[in-house]
Amino acid sequence: MYPEDRVLVAYVPQPADFEIVKQAGWYRIPQKHAPKGLHAEYFAFYFGRRFGTEKWAIHYYAPQLGHELTTRLALVPDEPNHPRAQEMYYKVQLGPLQKLAQPIVSLRWRRVTFLHTTWDRFLDATEINDLFVDGEPYVDRIYATLKERGIQAERNYRVQEPDNEYQLPLAILCRNGRIDLTANQLKQHSDKLEKLVTEIAKQVAAQGGQNSVVEGSEAV
After folding, report:
1. Which of 16, 17, 32, 65 lies deepest, with the highest CB count within 10 Å?
2. Looking at residue 10, which CATH number applies to its domain?
3. Domain co-membership, 146 together with 90
4. In terms of C-beta density within 10 A (0-12 exposed, 13-18 middle, 19 or more buried), how is residue 17 classed?
5. Do 53 and 122 belong together in one domain?
6. Do residue 126 and residue 141 come from a single domain?
7. Residue 38 located in a structural domain
8. Domain around 180
9. Are 6 and 128 in contact (CB under 8 A)?
């Protein structure tokens, strides 16, 4: 295990899917939805809402031993009439499944399909936002400084509007609104970190502070 080893966090929607991981030692990914980074040294598993008290969290991970391309029918032969039976899937072979001493949780519901991270971040993470590696260095610094101040920012926050959809590097969800932090804004203030964080803290207080957890309902 090396700090730079790659970890691919994969979404598991159904307990039955995780039973395959536990009992058979493999995980399937549709070829047409396969992410970059399929060669990650480790796979970790993010549970959907059907996992009861374990939902919206990462509890387990396993080393990847290799992968092959095959049909869904070959993987699940008892479902020959499934509409995707002839579609191609990656069968990811896994080593021994390991359980984290403390799960990596999503403090606010988010749909994670695949998320890339590194082994060192994975070991240090307490919640999903700690795993992101695709932001600029100044985004990391601002996120970490906000967290030290007790302010929880959401990374790669997706905003959907009637005629537009975009992603913010950081957003802070408050009781009475949301604080959006754009890439340009963060970059302009990257050398004035303490001043920016102090301003954000004042805005959070003005909007009633933050809820510790915001529940949501996962899409089926």
Report:
1. 17
2. 2.30.130.30
3. no
4. middle
5. yes
6. no
7. yes
8. 137-206
9. no
**The whole model's pTM is what?**
0.81
Of 83, 114, 131, at which residue does a domain stop?
131
Residue type, 39: H
pLDDT values of the chain reduced to their tens digit, one per residue, 220 residues:
788 999 999 999 999 999 999 999 999 999 999 998 789 999 999 999 999 999 999 999 999 999 999 999 999 999 999 999 999 999 999 999 999 999 999 987 777 889 999 999 999 999 999 999 877 788 988 999 999 999 999 998 888 888 888 889 999 999 999 999 998 888 887 778 889 999 999 999 999 999 765 444 343 3
91-101 core/surface letters (b: 16 or more CB in 10 A; e: else): bbebeebeeee
